[in-house]
Every structure is written in structure tokens, then in C-alpha cells.
Amino acid sequence: MEQANTVEDYLKKLSRYDIYNNVFYRGQSEKYKNITSSVSRDVGYTMNESSIYTEAIKMRTMEFDGLTSPIECLSKMQHYGIPTRLVDLTIDPLIALFFAVQKVDCKSHGNVYVFVQPEHSLNDKRVKLLSHLATLKSLKIDVIKSSYIERYSENITEDEILEFASKGAFIKHSVELQKSNERLFCQKGTFAICGNEIIGREIKKTVLPLNSIEPTMVIRIPFEHKQAVKKELDEKYNINETTIYPELPSVADYLKEKYKKVDFDLEGTYSILEVKDMSNSGARRCSIVAVLNKVLRIEEIKNIGIQIIDQYKSANDVVWVYIAKNGDDYIMRNWMIRGQWIRESLDPRCKPHLIGDMDELGYIWRFEKSYSTLADYYDEYSFTDDKILYTQNMKTFEKFEPHYKFMLNAFESGNMKDLEEYAIDNAGDITKLFLKFGDYGHSRNNEFDKYLNSFQEVALHLDNIVLWVKKEELNSHTKRYLISNCFRDAKLHFNRIKEQAMYWKKTINLSEDEYNKIDPEKIKRQEYQYKQTIPLNPDGLDVTFNLDISQNIDNTLNIRGTTNLFDKASLMISLRNSKGLLLAQNKSLVENGIFDFGKLGKKGIGFDKGKYKVDITLAIPSVQNEEFLLKAGLEYENLKGKYVDRTGIGPTISYTEEFEI
């Protein structure tokens, strides 16, 4: 999921899909967790889908005159709010955006779901089968087959019935569809038709939601920005209630909302949690952090920023204000908005850089573009139970402490040789411990989270000592000075950990038995997993590589080769020895099926005799050339074969070859 605060942000994010013709959009409130057809929202509708279809036509025969197929009839029913298995879509991203932000008083965010899917005509076999299911009382396969053949005068197999019925279909935008549903013209609309749940070879009455098909992208417009985005759609693009809904009642809704006066009282809407003096010799400066006490629109939040700045600017030359939506965002320093004020008469040499754009009143603003999606990420991946956090950090600290004590003792006793040898021998272990501390997550208790931060800080300073030890260009005096500073800061955090350990163990009510039972190595944090959303092309390119490895006179290597990858593919080579140590890396673009990584290895030194492994990778699509993506696809859906990997953070290609010098 991505966040957009303005129409410009939104269109920029969508521009990556300009290479596709078959893009569909759905805008709705985030409070609706599923994209469901109306017939699936009540079990009574679902169990009586065919009766609803039949009775609707019988009760309004004239309305359905001239409509010859079930899909046309379903489209007409959808227009009048009769429960169907259709889901409204549009091919216009701005209209989908309107539906996402339409209800500006609803505190829920607005979402636009983007689907890159094959489009099907009204006469497509899949569409005919899915719409035919809506007309049948019995969903037994033999009944479906015989009635389908009778209706459409074409054969269909049982395997086709099961395949088509299990998945939804996206219907191509067409003039024919508009004939049965006039509103589609104004909304550049079309439909997806939903499939049924299938168990074994039995088709159930349950109609699946559309989100059983993974959207290629979801763009969120946070509640705070919904009203501003809706206003922008009206003023810049003439998209509003009256153009979306031509009926007269929509005009009334539009005018009432446009001219409604809203009074806003700042009292009790926020709390100031931090005020820091940031003054220097050239200017009086302060920084204020505030957290909202209620959900507000962005203009209201901006007014809070102005009120805070005005409260402090008389005593300062520079004021910064940071506003978080809630306590979790405050802990993670995940700001919604940052404000800044600089006294105009301040010496230019003492003025800080502007953090954003200045408004007509002289305030500078930066509206953060990912705060809501980051908040979701932190909630899912960063915040952890306090008892687990304490135990993970403390048990890892038990492994870290011997390293710290040995190195500190060596330094304080003046034995720099022992310190340096120990640091180099244990560098890998110290770095791993530092990374572990950083990976354990955060507490929602701000004070406890500050305590936990000491574990990472003490490990960071020890890891920095290892770096200074390895700096051969430093003289002994400079090196000792830098290491001394690291130990000075490390001691503060080390002592804090020891002194407050029992206090926090008691505060979070962690028993000794619970502490002993928690094994940090067995606790796996949830990680992001890539999902393929654009259907794979069965006729895609089966990727191949052929390498040519040659050794030069100076023992360096030349590695080049051929591939059938499309031109402008950006490849990375990594060369490792038999122990897995990385020795060299380089990049190459594919041109006319050829890649060349040039000379690898230091001139005059090269590589010793032995076994080596070369890895050639095609990185994720977001870093690839646009010309290559036009053919490979944004999710490499047009590539296939044993070298393609669709796990991890995105699709990649990896080719490995071992060789010996």
C-alpha cells in the first residue's frame, strides 16, 4: 500500500502503469475490508441469487426488453441497486479517486485499488459462464453444462466450468455495456464479475469477493487529506457529485457540502510532549513535539502547528514543530506534518535550511507522504510484547557483555595490542549482536522503549571501536582518542542497562519462569512477502545465460556472456571464493543479447588458484530501465524459467556458476 496526499501524488504513483492498457480501478472507503459484490453481502441474497434475477426481470419486463444476455441484465440490475455478483469498476483513475474520498466526514481513509488484469468482452466464454451462474437455482456441474449449451449454443467442458467459476473476470469497457447501464457513461465504468467458492469439484452458492484477486497496487488517501483531495478534483478536473451522478439530488448534496461553514476549536485537540532548547551562538532556537488527541483534517492540523509556533516564536529566532497522529507514531518519530518559522531579521548566516515550502503567512511546512502507511508497517512489524522485548535484549546482552568487558579492560589497562587483536577476531560476532538488538522491535511504553534503545547503543559503540581499530591510516594517538570516546558513551548505556534491569523486569511483571521459557532464537518476526498480482504470461521468455570466463596475464578475470533477456536489462555480478567471501562486484547492461562485466580484480594482484562462484542477478523491477520493463513487465510477468525467483521483496533472476582457476 502507498499513500497519496494530493491528486498530483496519486497520478505520479499510477504513471508506472502507463505501459498497460488493461488497468481497472476501484475506489472505496478503507472501513470496508473486502471488495464484495452486493449479492454476497447477505446470505439470503446469495442463497436466492437466481430468484432475485428472475423476479427482477418479471417485475420490470419493459426495462429489460432488448437485453439478450445475462450479463446485460445483470448490468441493468446493478444500475438500480438490485443485488448482483458484479462489482463496479472504472477505467478512469480520477473517478476511482473521487469514490475513495467522496465521504469526507467519514473518519476512515479512502483507498483506490488498482488491478492489472486480462480484460474480457461481453461475449467471452468466461463472462458468459459467470453471468449464467447467476440465473441458475442448481449449481451442479451437469445442470450448468446442459443449460449453458442450451442458452449459448456452444459447447463447454466440465474443466472449463470449474476453472471459469472459481475466478472472477474483468469486463472490457464498451459502448454495449453502457446501453444497459446509463451511469457507466459518466463514470467511465465497467465491472468485474465475481466467481464462486469451489470445494473439490463442487460449486458452492457462496460468491467470492473481488479481493480474492490480489490488486496490483492499493493507494491510500488518509482521512486528513480526503477533503483537500476532493476539493482539488472539483476545482481542477470538474469531478464532483453532479458530474458523477447526473440526477438532481446529487446537485443538492454538492452545493450543501461546498458552502457549509465549519467552526473549529483547537481546545483539547493536541498535547505537547517535548520542548527542546536548540539554541546556538547565532540564534535562539527551539523544537516542539505535539501529539494529536483526536482525528483532524490537514488544515486543522496546520492550524495547530501555527498556534504552537506563535506560542514560542516571541522568545526564539527559529521554531520547529513536529506533529504525530498518536503515541505510536510519536515513539517511531513518524510525523504527519512538520512546521518551521524563522525570524525574518535573523542574520542569513544563522538561518537554517527551509524544511519545505513557505506559505503566505511566513510559515514553512512539510507534509509527510508516507505517515499512514508507515504507521501500518510499524504496527505490524515493529511493535512487540514488552516481556518478549526485555527477554530478547537481555539474553542477547548476556552474550554481548563478555566482549564489552574484555575490550574495555584491555583499553583501560593500556593493552592496545590485545584490544586490536580481539576486535578483529570477534568483529563478525559483535556486528551480528548489534544487528540483533536493532531487529527486536519497539515497545509502546515510551520510557521502556528508551531503556531498550540502550542495548542497541552500547553495541553500536563497540561496533564502531572495531571500525576504528581496522583503520590502518590512523596514527595511534588519533585511534586511541576515537576509541576513548566510544567507550565513554558505551559506559553510559552499559551502566543504565545494569542499573535499571530489575526495575523494568518488575514493572512489566516478567517472572523468572517466563524469562527462562522465552528463547530469542525461536521468535521469528514477521517479514514482508512479495505477492505476484499481474497474471504470468504462459508464453513468457524462458531466461537463459551463457558465461565466458577468461583469466588475464595479471591474474584478473574478464567475465562476459550472452543471454536472451531483453535489451537494457541491468545485471549485477558478485564473485566469491570457496568460503563465500565477496571479492568483486560490477554491473552491466544487456545490449543485443550480450553483457560484459569488464575486468574484475585488482590490477597486478588478481586472484589466486582455487575454486570460485559467480552470481549474476537481475534486480527487482523498481531499479530497472523503463525500456526493459516495457517488455519484461512491471512484475516480470513476461519472464519465466528456473532462474526466476518470485519470493522475498520482489521478483528477481539469479544465475550461479562455479569455476576453478
UniProtKB/TrEMBL annotation:
The record, for InterPro entries, names:
FRG-dom (IPR014966)
Q: Which domain of life is it from?
A: Bacteria
Q: Where is the FRG domain?
A: 19-115
Question: Would you tell me the protein name for this molecule?
Answer: FRG domain protein
